[in-house]
């Protein structure tokens, strides 16, 4: 859930999102260091009386400022590629849930070998003093088990939508005629919010997504 | 329909005179294999196996009173894994768009029941895979097209 004035990413609740948060922090350190160094050089060049104005070339300097960024880039590339390939994991899912986007609500369908249950999830229009979150809560939440590899199959019945839950690090476009898949796994119980992320008409801002994760024992 | 006797037989055949109050990986795997083979002998469908696992998971507290702790944990794990079924990763469709996966499973199901008859057990895999993958609206549309002879592929 994002709060007012939030600047950082939401806390990672799925395995992939936690790794993405760590990667983001790691990259941010490198980038801040580079920015600090460049800012210092900039100020030094402008203000320092000891600046050497008569240097025309320096082979050593050119070598150093090629090798050092190359090394920095290598340090950035390895975790990035590692995470990228990890996200494409093809582990066998435990549960498949179909998500169909409509104007302007989401429809969830659980189809298992022994039951087939679908329901619509509309935003709740409540007055400001209600305990529910304004423009984020829905009447029927999608209830899912923890510690299960869940595969979401997202499509749309009319126009483009996008199904996103930032806490889990998942987002995929809901395109009519296409069935996009998303894989996630979370060990944490809780209620996670998301919103439609592709403009889809007048009520685009009013079709939120709410996932409720409960332990597998209670789920079954 | 599977009966609880299977579980008793499977456990008694595998777990020998060991310390069963602790969870033992090897004994547990043996029990899983034994249960799998016994269920296979019963020739249950996918739905029936899931229901069997789910029902046993739901009464796990009763099983706790019967078996020692190590075995109970093993059984709980077994039932939890099998209570919900989903088709395995299909390497013919590794990319993000799974629409073709849904369609191909549906077509395979229709061809299977046309060739082998409605009651043929092995067609059930395709039916379950299509039901898991395809949104209900698509399935209804496909069914209507088949009835009105407008389905895009020859069955």
Automatic annotation (TrEMBL), chain A:
Catalytic activity: 4 Fe(II)-[cytochrome c] + O2 + 8 H(+)(in) = 4 Fe(III)-[cytochrome c] + 2 H2O + 4 H(+)(out)
Cofactor binding remark: Binds a copper A center.
Cofactor(s) listed in the protein's UniProt record: Cu cation
Lineage: superkingdom: Eukaryota
Domain Cytochrome oxidase subunit II transmembrane region profile: 1-91
Primary location group: membrane
GO biological process: ATP synthesis coupled electron transport
Keywords from the UniProt entry: Copper, Electron transport, Magnesium, Membrane, Metal-binding, Mitochondrion, Mitochondrion inner membrane, Respiratory chain, Translocase, Transmembrane, Transmembrane helix, Transport
Signal sequence interval, chain numbering: none
UniProt KW Transmembrane helix keyword: yes
GO molecular function, one term: copper ion binding
Transmembrane segment boundaries: 26-47, 67-86
Cytochrome oxidase subunit II copper A binding domain residues: 92-220
Protein's membrane topology: Multi-pass membrane protein
Single GO cellular component term: mitochondrial inner membrane
Protein family per UniProt: Belongs to the cytochrome c oxidase subunit 2 family.
Job of this protein: Component of the cytochrome c oxidase, the last enzyme in the mitochondrial electron transport chain which drives oxidative phosphorylation. The respiratory chain contains 3 multisubunit complexes succinate dehydrogenase (complex II, CII), ubiquinol-cytochrome c oxidoreductase (cytochrome b-c1 complex, complex III, CIII) and cytochrome c oxidase (complex IV, CIV), that cooperate to transfer electrons derived from NADH and succinate to molecular oxygen, creating an electrochemical gradient over the inner membrane that drives transmembrane transport and the ATP synthase.
Annotated protein name in UniProt: Cytochrome c oxidase subunit 2
Encoding gene (name): COX2
UniProtKB/TrEMBL annotation, chain B:
Matches recorded under InterPro entries: COX6B-like (IPR048280), CX6/COA6-like_sf (IPR036549), Cyt_c_oxidase_su6B (IPR003213)
Pfam families: COX6B
Keywords from the named record: Disulfide bond, Mitochondrion
GO-annotated cellular components: mitochondrion; respiratory chain complex IV
Cell location: Mitochondrion
Protein name in the entry: Cytochrome c oxidase subunit VIb
Organism: Brachionus calyciflorus
Organism placement in taxonomy: Eukaryota, Metazoa, Spiralia, Gnathifera, Rotifera
């Amino acid at each position: 859930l994002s709060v007012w004035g939030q600047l950082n990413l939401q806390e990672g609740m799925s395995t992939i999102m936690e790794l993405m948060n760590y990667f983001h922090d790691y990259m941010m350190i490198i980038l801040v260091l580079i920015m600090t160094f460049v800012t210092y050089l900039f100020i030094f060049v402008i203000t320092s009386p000891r600046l050497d104005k008569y240097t025309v070339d320096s082979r050593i300097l050119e070598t150093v400022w090629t090798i050092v960024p190359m090394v920095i880039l290598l340090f950035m590339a390895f975790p990035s590629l590692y995470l990228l390939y990890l996200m494409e994991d093809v582990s066998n899912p435990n549960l498949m849930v179909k998500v169909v986007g409509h104007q302007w609500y989401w429809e969830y369908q659980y189809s298992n070998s022994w039951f087939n249950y679908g329901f619509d999830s509309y935003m709740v229009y409540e007055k400001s003093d209600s305990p529910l979150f304004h423009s984020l809560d829905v009447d029927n939440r999608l209830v899912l088990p923890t510690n299960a590899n869940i595969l979401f199959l997202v499509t749309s019945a009319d126009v483009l939508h996008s199904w996103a839950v930032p806490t889990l690090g998942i987002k995929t476009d809901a395109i009519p005629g296409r069935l996009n898949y998303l894989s996630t796994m979370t060990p944490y119980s809780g209620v996670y919010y998301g919103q439609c992320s592709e403009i889809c008409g007048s009520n685009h801002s009013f079709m939120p997504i709410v996932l409720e994760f409960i332990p597998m024992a209670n789920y079954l | 329909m599977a009966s609880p006797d299977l579980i008793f037989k499977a456990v008694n055949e595998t777990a020998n005179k060991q310390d069963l109050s602790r969870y033992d990986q090897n004994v547990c795997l043996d029990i899983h294999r034994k249960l799998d083979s016994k269920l296979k002998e019963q020739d249950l469908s996918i739905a029936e196996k899931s229901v069997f696992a789910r029902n046993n998971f739901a009464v796990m507290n009763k099983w706790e009173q019967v078996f020692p702790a190590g075995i109970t944990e093993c059984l709980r794990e077994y039932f939890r894994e099998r209570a919900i079924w989903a088709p395995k990763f299909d390497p013919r469709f590794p990319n993000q768009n799974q629409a073709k996966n849904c369609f191909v499973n549906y077509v395979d199901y229709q061809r299977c029941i046309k060739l082998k008859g409605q009651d043929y057990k092995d067609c059930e895999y395709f039916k379950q895979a299509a039901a898991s993958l395809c949104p209900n609206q698509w399935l209804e549309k496909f069914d209507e097209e088949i009835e009105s002879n407008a389905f895009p592929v020859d069955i």
